[in-house]
Structures are given as C-alpha cells and as structure tokens.
Design brief:
mainly beta; 202 residues
C-alpha cells in the first residue's frame, strides 16, 4: 500500500450505555451490554492513497464484537460510497480493513470474519446539533452531542490514546437503526461518538 492520508469526520453509534468505556480504556473494558454492536460513518474532506484521490467520499463500517474490543474476534462489513471508482474503493477497503497500516492497522489482527464490501449511496451530514448518517434500508442514524456543564458546548474526552482520535465528543444515538447481514439493531438512546480525524499510513 502506498502512503495514504485522510482528514475528515467520524460518527459512531453503539449499544453501550452512555458513555462507551472504550475511549478511556482503549478497548480493554467489557462493553456495558457484554457485547459490542456498532456502526460508524466516515466523511473524507481531504484524502489520498498514493495518486488516488479520496476527497469528498463517504464510508461506513459494521462491527459486531463478542467482548472487549481489544480481545478481537470482530465481525466486520464495509460500505463504500457508490461514487468511488475502482481504485478509490480498493484503497478504502485496504484502509478500513487495517491492511494499509496507520491508525486502523490493528484491525487486521482483530477481524475474525469479514462479511464483504458493498458500494452504496451514503449520506453524511450535519443535522441540527448533531450528525446524520444514512444508507437506504441499512443505516438510519442520527447522533447528537451530550450537553456540557456550561449548557452550550458539548462534553468531550480529550488527550486520549484512542485509535480514532485523541479528542472525542460524547454523544447519544438519538435515532440509530441498522439492518443488514442478518442483523436488526435499534441502538437509539445508546452511546455515540464524534471526532475530527487525521489518519495516515502505513
């Protein structure tokens, strides 16, 4: 894999009670429901893998984990923006499966079952105070920040070693439905995360 770089936004919704322990424990804590059901969406503002442009594309990931994130045995499925050409699709699959190294590189040893890749229309947008991720008939998700003590800004966890970003906004999935690959999850009211990301590899 040639050198790659991505800058953008990531929104995550999971089945944990608010707030998911993974950010501070770095995935070592038991999920609050014993298992981890999650989807996350990625919007790339600026990105490139070698000479392949990735800017403007969206992606999403299904993760089904039987225990603490750091113990592996993940089941993963990928969704790539239907607007991506073959080279961009292949680059994003390499990055999001961990094969391209960088912050997601550890995924390559954690994934036990890879469900596959689907190219689909993916919407990622700001919505009121939060963010919306949508894939027709698959993901219907809106995630909003938890209000901080000042009543204005969001609650944040900062200066962490979390794989996603050192600074994470604490959120709740106000509406979060996932239906695909034999799964039918309603994660509404459960934990969520938002982060600005800057990833690079390998």
């Amino acid at each position: 894999m040639k050198p790659w770089k991505i800058r953008g936004e990531l929104v995550l919704s999971c089945n944990c009670d608010v707030f998911c322990p993974c950010v501070v424990s770095l995935g070592r804590s038991q999920p609050t429901q014993g298992v981890c059901y999650t989807w996350w969406g990625l919007h790339i503002e600026e990105g490139r893998a070698g000479d392949v442009p990735l800017s403007g594309l969206n992606a999403a990931v299904l993760m089904d984990v039987p225990g603490p994130l750091a113990e592996g045995k993940w089941t993963v499925g990928l969704y790539i923006d239907e607007r991506a050409g073959d080279s961009a699709r292949d680059a994003l699959v390499e990055i999001l499966s961990g094969k391209a190294g960088g912050p997601t590189g550890w995924f390559s040893i954690m994934i036990a079952e890879f469900l596959g890749v689907k190219q689909v229309p993916i919407e990622f947008e700001r919505k009121d105070r939060g963010w919306r991720v949508s894939i027709p008939k698959i993901i219907d998700g809106t995630v909003e920040p938890i209000e901080g003590a000042d009543g204005e800004s969001a609650t944040r966890v900062t200066n962490t070693k979390y794989w996603m970003s050192s600074d994470v906004t604490v959120c709740r999935g106000t509406r979060s439905r996932f239906r695909d690959w034999g799964r039918n999850w309603d994660l509404s009211g459960r934990s969520g995360e938002y982060a600005r990301i800057e990833w690079a590899g390998p």
